[in-house]
Amino acid sequence: MSLMQLVAEYGYLAVFLGALLEGETVLVLAGYAAHQGYLSLPLVVVTALCAGALGDQGFFLVGRRYGTALLQRYPKLEAGAQRVDRMLVRFQTPVILGIRFMYGLRVAGPIALGMSAVPTWRFVLFNLIGAAIWAPLVVGTGYLFGQTLEWVFADIRRYEEAAVLTIVGVAVAFALFRRLRRHVR
């Protein structure tokens, strides 16, 4: 089974699992695969949106129920939780919307939000809005990357002959220059 067959067969599962956790890399690659025709762009976006919202909601509920115990067991999460708490004081809605865009806070952020006084209904609402912004943005980045590569390589093919002739011309000129220089010495 080739790599492309694997992508076509298990790509949506990979998108779901990747977006459930920290899925930027998986989503960019899925966007590229959609550009290449191996996956459907709308289906990749919807899968990423659902999994991203579900994952963050799950971490939020884990924070609600087990937040303190998790911080005691995994002290590395505490630094992220403290950062989120400091930001929540002034910017509650933007933090909920943007937590998935903040490096290093993709898991710790929703857990910290679950431990905070943010009402569950508010988190659900802004989590869905944030996922609806995040999924097409990240998947679209991969899709546009594929489009850019296509344009670059199309231009390269168009100018390939001229580029080869230029390289050969420069190499010949350099060789002649060296030979002339040796002759003068």
UniProtKB/TrEMBL annotation:
Keywords: Membrane, Transmembrane, Transmembrane helix. The chain crosses the membrane at residues 12-33, 39-63, 123-146, 158-177. Residues 23-143 form the VTT domain. It comes from the Bacteria. This is DedA family protein. It comes from Azotobacter bryophylli.
